[in-house]
Task: structure prediction
Amino acid sequence: MALGSNLGNREAHLQAAREALASLPETILIAASTIEETEPLAGKAQPPYLNQMVLLQTRLQPRALLEALQAIERQEGRVRTERWGSRTLDLDIVRFGERRVVEADLIIPHPELSNRDFWRRELAEIEAR
Result:
């Protein structure tokens, strides 16, 4: 799971996300990477992001997990207005074990994984533990 925030108290949003993820039914938060500050993607003029990767063990199916993530984002004040816009919290399913999913609004592994160096660094950090 990728966590990101560039509005408000960014650290508090990531902390709230970790706590909410750990409290999902049949889900355990196994590990979390170091928090990393990154520049916005797509050349947008907006504040920098704090990003972090977490490893979950869950019995939730990908669709149920996505719905739970979107509910957590809303709890932290996320309003979806524009693509690549600033946000209080962004939660992405980056990988789901070896599973592949291709749906209109859910693609696993995340199609941007190969384009985001910080995601790959954070994943490598978790996998090295």
User: Anything to note?
Assistant: The longest helix spans residues 62-75. DSSP finds three helices and seven strands in the chain. Helices lie at 10-22, 62-75, 117-127. The radius of gyration is 14 Å.
